[in-house]
Amino acid sequence: MPSKPLHRRIVGATIRKHRERAGLSLEKLAEKSDLHHNFIGEVERANLDISVGSLLKIATALKVRVRDLVGEL
Prior knowledge:
Distance between the termini: 23 Å
Low-confidence stretches: none
Radius of gyration: 11 Å
Largest sheet: none
CATH superfamily: lambda repressor-like DNA-binding domains
CATH architecture: Orthogonal Bundle
Strand content: under 5%
Shape: globular
Number of helices: 5
Mean pLDDT: 96
CATH topology: 434 Repressor (Amino-terminal Domain)
CATH class: Mainly Alpha
């Protein structure tokens, strides 16, 4: 099985870092960003790509900029 793409791993890890720093559970972040908690979990585990729209929702919920979530790419 090939490893997960680097961009997914970076974005997922960065979202998780900001979520944990904000003291939010997956469920609470999902509620604040109007996304499903399973989707956010899959993104954090690098199993799914994420759209710019979903990145914007998550960034808004975390009170960060989108570039803070993708800056390491």
